[in-house]
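step 4 of 6: structure.
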Amino acid sequence: MRYLPKSPDERAEMLRAIGVDTVGELFSGIPAEARLDRPLRLDAGKSEAEVLGYFRARAAECAREFTSFLGAGAYDHFRPAVVDALISRSEFSTAYTPYQPEISQGTLQSIFEFQTLICQLTGMDVANASLYDGSTALPEAVMMAVRTTGRHRALVARSVHPEYRQVLDTYIRHQGMHIDEIPCLATGQVDSAALTDRLGDDVAAVVLQSPNFFGIVEEPHAIAAEVHAAGALLVAMVSEPVSLGVVRPPSEADIVAGEAQGCGVPPSFGGPYVGFLSTSDQYKRAIPGRLVGQTTDSNGERAFCLTLTTREQHIRREKATSNICTNQALCALMVTIFLSLYGRRGFRDLALHNLAKAGYAASALRARGATLRFAGPFFNEFVVSGIRPPADLEARLAEARIIGGLDLTRYYPELAGDVLFCFTENASREAIDRMVEIYTG
Amino acid sequence: MSDQDIKKARRHLTQNEGLIFERSSAGKTGVQLPPLDVPSIDPAAALGSQNVRDTIPGFPEVSEFEVVRHFTRLSTWNYGVDTGAYLLGSCTMKYNPKINEVVARLEGIATAHPLQPASTVQGCLRIMQALSRALIEITGMDAITLQPAAGAHGELTGLLLVRAYLESRGDARKKVLIPDSAHGTNPASAYQVGYRTQALPSNARGTVDIDLLDKLMTEDVAALMLTNPNTLGVFEDEIHRIAEIVHSRGGLIYMDGANLNALLGVSRPGDFGIDVLHLNLHKTFSTPHGGGGPGAGPVAVRKHLAPFLPIPVIAEDAGGTLSFDFDRPQSIGRVRAFYGNFGMLVRALAYILANGFDGLRQLTEDAVLNSMYVRTQLEADYDLPYDAPTLHECVFSDKRQARHGVRTGDIAKRLIDYGFHPYTVSFPLIVPGALMIEPTESESKQELDFLIDALRFIAREAEQDPELVLSAPRTTRVSRVDEVQAARKPILRWLPPTPTD
Amino acid sequence: MTYPNHLHYTQEHEWVEVSGSLATVGITDHAQHQLGDIVYVELPRPGTAVESGKVCGTVESVKAVSEIFSPVSGEVRETNAALTEAPETVNQDPHAKGWMIRVQLSGDGLPDGLLSAEQYEKFASEEAG
């Protein structure tokens, strides 16, 4: 086996040094009845060429060189070549969690930069080293609010990503919590009157997402005062981080959490992605997951290390702020590199391109008789009604090399037949025109 | 002792590099966008002036090449598996094959959107199905979910499955038994599923105390969370008796699969009574750790737990077309959006295909061979608190060195000077001053001989010149880092320097 | 280190000093030594009711968390605000400047079973083995 660095002679020599005759004796601690008495029913080991061939064949069974109009929590933004070139440096990719800071300063400093960039994007004071993804960032944020307030009810806008809400339901099922869903208005924004009705002194968190699942920009600053007056924490979720290049950050919220995949992480059929969680300074000890802090070494030089670790499971065990152990360091590094490349001006321009593409598409669809389901302001996604049923269009879309929008029937029965479209900088005007023609033809 | 004793490593220069923000200067950029082919839009008009931001204060402005230099320099301050042996016990820091990275980046695979129509992602679904089948065969279980993003996430999922199954029989029960040698994630996960935890003290061998289990395994106990082989590297030799006791009282056995590298092709959890098991693809199946993630923590179960698996599961129609099945009324729901860390699944399957049944068994044999070689060569110099036969890892204690004021954490730091990434320090908790070493199959005899030499030298240094060990590391870019200062006055982000008059 | 005679001690390694109906509580020199460099102290807000033998706060070092058990019952009147900025005070002067909470004792006064300085010193040295 080409990955194994030992010759038969070396193996024999090591067995002699151990003092056994056969490798079988090394397994004497496993009782006979627990041993497998046959080879595993798998193929024999394959050459690298065969492995590559297998996956090329699988890749050929997937759509390639298509223009995609899917968003809904996973975004197709251009990834500069530098991102993969740098994260492929094996000192980054093959390192473990930086428990030994003296030989992990690369990982630690890059995470410190990630934390800073997330704070800058979200307008918050502190951010953690990342979480699994946006969907798990939601229950982590809600449970943080529960710990902080000692209350057990959360009000969650129905316009928060439906899969995120499903994950929340699973996570909190045995936490003695109750979730109330808050509907949205014709604008697509959260119904603040319904929110007011349900806000009480037992509410730990009010959760909304901006831009929300329908692409509509919410106004968290408008409800923050009311939420705080009730003693609850305001949690603002973000699933499309590029929006923060132009959309006002929800800095009036107490926790801003979400998904940063759009900034340099490939869609990769749903993962790995990179969740984030940021908050104000007063809640830093309630943050779940890892944190990197700046300090000095014994010579007084700037250095970084994992810090406030007493919050975590390996010390506090069942009383930890979360059971989370890993973060998504390599994906966080992609985000850090991506944001460093785009920078202050480039990131804003990127957001403006997305805004412009979506605006163009909205006009083109309206011009051909389609309607936008919601009247509120949108960034790069919106819901369209009055178009041909997506199920009828699969063949035509494939022929036109287009991945169409998301049919909302499965997620929102009340929006059956409506389609959620996303427009990134990668969608050319020509591809948008082609798509509009198919859906409205 | 002198640097001449250090055969594997020598000092080298590293470049200084500040934070990316400190390289910033207004007007630089690392990206050029293509010309906009649609009319531009005024954001205040489109979004409302109350909903827009003008700029992001403090965001960096640097050129492409500066970004490359910056992160390349940072990378040289790290130590990866590709640099040298990474001895972390229970972490299985093995070689991460390069072909895995190539196949995970193929167009069609890396570019697939999770919500594409099934007809456009058959290859992705086929990969998930093939990996599921391989892992089921390797573990001897009946069904699997690939959704959990990491080991601890798998624990949460697995315990939710336990709870859902027990609830379906009318009684969720109240407690989970956890051996005192277990990973800290175990009790944290149990708590999140609403279970109280009860510690199960190990016996003198470091394994489950059968009499005590017999006493504590009441009708209140939902599950026993077992790591097998355990964190000492010892296989629970009375596993059948353990399974009999737990099952006869209506409980389930959860297995933490962190140490599965000891069992490939040798022994299968499904055959020795395990009901639910999480795997760590980033340990056993070679997906890179990435400085702390991403990982992947699939959960495999026996038949009786299958109806409760998270949605969706993969379904195949008569014609062989694959799709996702969301209609699973008994499912615990979702533990993550979409389908899990798919990119890690691709890499794990590539690893299994490259190894095959023969390579998997061989790698487990080599992993045990390496660990036992290290154990026997160091027994004269380090205290071995438990002498039961061990598999893929071994645990020493610092008892002898502690007499000279040198603790496991100091030995670890000194090992860095010798060119190694240290072992796991002070874990498992049942061994005071633990040195937990897992060499994995990926280390050559030569690398192991360097390691053995290094640890022998350090044992001697501890006796003759303890200060040398206590002041280590001396060859790294930064010396011992002040973690106390970091925790007392946390600085968790960069802030622009405040202007001074 | 000597344990001041005017303090009472617990087997959980807290000390308590009584002055009228006010009790001042801290952790012992032995406890701070076991924990190592203290980085954070979490204390109950003034007004909180504490109960003898129950957890009333935590002390953290870099790699450990230790619970503080209140030796007395009553209501917290004051906490040592200086510990927020300088938790190392607990290491430097555990029996005086490193005090943690002042409690208005409830009717029962001091509970039974508190140790004298001599008894505690013996207890702590036995525990350290």
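step 5 of 6: annotate
 - The first strand of chain A starts at residue 67 and ends at 68.
 - The two ends of chain A are 57 Å apart (CA to CA).
step 6 of 6: archive
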